[in-house]
Write a structure and sequence with these properties.
Blueprint (H helix, E strand, L loop, with lengths): L1 H18 L7 E2 L6 E5 L5 E6 L12 H14 L7 H4 L3 H14 L3 E5 L2 H12 L5 E5 L4 H8 L4 E5 L4 H10 L6 E6 L11 H10 L3 E5 L14 H4 L8 E5 L10 E5 L1 H10 L1 H4 L6 H15 L2 H21 L10 E7 L1 H13 L2 E2 L2 E2 L9 E6 L6 H17 L4
Parallel strand pairs: 3-12, 5-6, 5-7, 7-8, 8-9
Antiparallel strand pairs: 1-2, 2-3, 4-10, 9-10, 11-14, 13-14
Length: 399
């Protein structure tokens, strides 16, 4: 049987390469940062400016996080060898849960090994067959998979379309519970969910609201508390799922924060929580340090906004098609899959590290290079990136 499936998969892989859909992995020979070293196919290395990491606040390599991780490991050990309810909970885990809840302005929080696991555990635990879940059509894959695990009736509303959401809410009125779920910031386009309108509809039609804020926690909103703060609806969102693997240090780990009773129920019923090892002490210590920095990071958030505006303005003036907005996710739309892949490779030769995104990560014909700005980028770095895009874009017929 292996010989048969081997031949079939080889053909499929060849087909992906031919279509420009194969997702290769580049190997770094340095720590994460705005400037990185990349291993090339010929065995050599080159230095490049990194414009595709989720390192929004440039905290991934900060000494404070390294120190926090090392001190936590010295005090609490390397790992717990168990799940939380058996013998895997330490005081540091409870402190991080309290601190992330306070930062996000919620009653409580529960830790998971990733936000993917958080989204994988929340729906099945809360919603039965008599419930309904209303989900944006462009929600993250982890939300899609999490929703699939529950027995609730699924309603998919058109992306950011509040009229369609309202129609779906009307259809779901016979359900015992209704839960609206949306990305706070949509990772492929950088657009922000209209949480004010969503919360208004939730209150009008008696529904809960869950927001995945992975691309917002730490830097979106006046104090970095995410899209609920940005949209002025703090206290109206019932559940927030988010990650520690982006702006908050870039390692791993995630959580669900929200109403006290909902979080307590997840401790009893969320399968990824009950059956996965506890978050490692070093991750807890590093994340706590990241939270302390994020709480006082007005200067970093201001620099991130400045870098974002500089890049967006320059790329638009150069003639590139980019999605409008003010988020540091900036999709440069190229549409053709092979062109996107070739452009990313040529940009690396120019010293700019970016990645092409194509189907099934984005719809067919919507291939792009997703640029992500960081507070660690300087004006000179941003300008070098734009200049490289212009040179390569002209060469490949993208301009």
């Amino acid at each position: 049987m292996y010989g048969k499936i081997k031949a079939d998969i080889q053909k499929r892989l060849e087909n992906l390469r031919a279509q420009g859909l194969y997702k290769g992995e580049r190997v770094l020979s340095s720590s994460q940062g705005t400037s990185i070293r990349v291993q090339l196919a010929n065995g050599k290395e080159r230095t490049a400016l990194n414009f595709c990491a989720n390192n929004y606040l440039a905290l991934a390599n900060r000494d404070e996080l390294r120190q926090g991780a090392c001190e936590a490991m010295e005090e609490w050990g390397y790992g717990l060898s168990s799940v939380r309810f058996i013998c895997g909970t330490q005081g540091a885990h409870k402190m991080l849960e309290r601190e992330i809840a306070d930062f996000l302005g919620t009653d409580d929080a529960i830790l998971f090994s990733s936000c993917f696991d958080a989204n994988g555990g929340v729906f099945e635990a809360l919603l039965d067959a008599d419930s309904a879940v209303l989900t944006d059509s462009l929600n993250h894959a982890s939300i899609i998979d999490g929703v699939r695990l529950c027995k609730a009736t699924r309603y998919i509303y058109d992306h950011l379309n509040m009229a369609d959401l309202e129609n779906k809410l009307k259809e779901a009125q016979s359900s015992t519970y209704r839960l609206i779920v949306t990305d706070g910031v949509f990772s492929m386009d950088g657009d922000v969910a209209p949480l004010g309108s969503i919360c208004d509809l939730a209150e009008a039609y008696d529904a809960l609201v869950l927001v995945d804020d992975s691309h917002a926690t730490g830097f979106v909103g006046p104090h970095g508390r995410g899209t609920a703060e940005y949209c002025a609806v703090m206290g109206r969102v019932d559940l927030i799922t988010t990650t520690f693997g982006k702006a908050l240090g870039g390692a791993s780990g995630g959580c669900v924060a929200g109403r006290q009773e909902l979080v307590e129920w997840l401790r009893q019923k969320a399968r990824p929580y009950l059956f996965s090892n506890t978050l490692a002490p070093a991750i807890v210590g590093g994340t706590r340090a990241a939270l302390r920095l994020a709480a006082q990071a007005e200067d970093l958030r201001a620099q991130l906004r400045k870098n974002t505006q500089r890049f967006r303005t320059s790329m638009t003036q150069a003639g590139f098609e980019i999605r409008p907005g003010d988020h540091p996710i900036v999709p440069v739309l190229l549409h053709d899959e092979n062109r996107a892949v070739n452009m990313a490779e040529r940009l690396l030769e120019e010293g700019i590290y970016v990645i092409a995104f194509s189907f099934p990560v984005v719809p067919r014909g919507a291939a792009r290079i997703r640029v992500q700005l960081s507070a660690g980028h300087t004006d000179e770095m941003v300008d070098r990136c734009v200049d490289a895009f212009v040179r390569v874009g002209k060469e490949l017929g993208a301009l």
